[in-house]
Amino acid sequence: MTDRNIRSILIVGGGTAGWMTAATLSRILGPDYAKITLVESDEIGIIGVGEATIPQMATFNRMLGLDEDQFVRETKGSFKLGIQFVNWGRAGHRYFHPFGKYGLDMKGVSFHAYYLRLRQLGEAPDVDEWSLQAMAARDDKFMRAIDAGNSPLSDIAYAYHFDAGLYAKFLRRYAEDKGVTRREGKIVDVKLRSEDGFVQSVQLEDGSHLEADLFIDCSGFRGLIIEQALKAGYTDWSQYLPCNRAIAVPCASVDAWTPYTRSTAHTAGWQWRIPLQHRIGNGHVFCSDYMSDDEATAILMSNLDGEPLADPRTVPFKTGHRNRMWVKNCVAMGLSGGFLEPLESTSIWLIQSGLSRFLTMFPDRDFNQADIDRYNRIMQTDYEEIRDFLVLHYHATERTDSPFWDYCRTMEIPERLAEKMRVFRTHGRAFRENEELFNDTSWFAVMLGQLMEPASHDPVADVMPLAETRERLAHIREAIANSADYMPKHRDFIREHCAA
Ligand code: FAD
């Protein structure tokens, strides 16, 4: 230890971001490096709507050393193989964005190229048939990968749905066991040091002050320190992602436990459906320029599977991010850093990536500005890349049935996305750019799913004789169908391994 090391850390907020931060720092730094305190207000509570995730969440759980069955049991969670999109390309149309890859490795040429070659000859059915995740989801099936050689069953990518309130409690127990101190109380003021504007302490309603070397702002949309005290500023992306409100309501479960999130487009936004063990989470994300709260609520309530279990709750938001997520001795994690709407369940991943990037740039008390600048630049790129993927869903649509969709279809889009779309439209090529979150399978699934039809296929696919291409793709398709048949029902799998 040097005498410039961080000695105390104050995490402000106890939602998903606050407790993920507390769990991570207590795990990685251990009990003796720095004193870690988390302060949260029971009166304010948490947003409690982040319930769907992506496969990278398993990496986070592994880093913490969590037992997956226990995690699913205690959060009354379920498994997720992808997202079903309904009414997005056009009313009545649906497609599946699966986790994992389509097909198998095809000796250096992407599977997508061979698939498109057959599709353009009118010989290939729905691309879902080459995704084990999509085929299992069709039949409400789920299992974890097993050691089965070349079988598709050896590689099953999945994520989770969970109850956000239970997740915060679960991580709280974990972090407290590792020495994190929790303080209940409402912060009413933030004190900055007069000499350099660094955060000195926060003041609670009862008059006490909490000091620290490092502050992690997990206070949610309000950005208590990062914005209200440090004035980080906000980049507003409403021109690309115009939805700005959500109405959320849980409802009773139904018999089939679907192992996927469903996103159903409506006339001014879309509705999520997230199945948990004890209820289904639902919400209608919409743009208030095109729809009133009453209308959005009525649409939501008339599209539930079961009885509502609570009154609908409205959550206003603005998509975008803080201009700087790390300012002086304060880093924003979670909603205090920014928000991209939950269409591809990326917010919890952004907390995860924020934490892992922060740990690679962990400061001492000198707070090197070059490290801070690098962190801010990388996080901004993460946000921009995800933004572009989300915008694709809205922009590549044939819907002409409402002013909202007219706006989305004709809006100006970021140049990086425009280029990806041009490249796909010619030869059907989809790429993962640098280290961006979504890979070529995701781009391919959503571009094709949103009814973008390439003019031609990648000419490299012609290296394989047509008869051989047909034979290989038929073989893979059959292996996937057999594997999906073999899998148990999602509900049975949960009952056997991780029922609450
Ligand atoms: P919050 O949950 O709001 O927590 C803020 C904390 O700060 C609370 O503990 C609060 O008490 C505390 N606090 C605030 N002010 C004070 C104060 N003055 N004094 C003391 N304590 C204070 N993400 C996904 O990954 N998947 C999804 O499916 C998904 N769906 C979403 C749907 C909607 C409509 C929205 C809005 C978000 C969704 N998200 C989703 C995002 C996800 O909910 C958040 O990223 C996640 O919950 C983290 O929230 P948070 O901890 O930053 O904020």
Automatic annotation (TrEMBL):
EC number: 1.14.19.9
Binding site for FAD: G14, G15, T16, A17, L335, I348
InterPro entries in the record: FAD/NAD-bd_sf, Flavin-dep_Halogenase_NPB, Flavin_halogenase, Trp_halogen
Top-rank taxon: Bacteria
SUPFAM superfamilies reported in the protein's UniProt record: FAD/NAD(P)-binding domain
Record bears the keyword Nucleotidyltransferase: no
Binding of 7-chloro-L-tryptophan, residues: K80
Active site residues of this protein: K80
Keyword terms: FAD, Flavoprotein, Nucleotide-binding, Oxidoreductase
EC class (word): oxidoreductase
Keyword Metal-binding recorded: no
Binding site for L-tryptophan: E344
Gene Ontology terms, MF aspect: monooxygenase activity; nucleotide binding
UniProt cross-references to Pfam families, sorted A to Z: Trp_halogenase (PF04820)
Name used for this protein in its record: Tryptophan halogenase
Source species of the chain: Sphingomonas kyeonggiensis
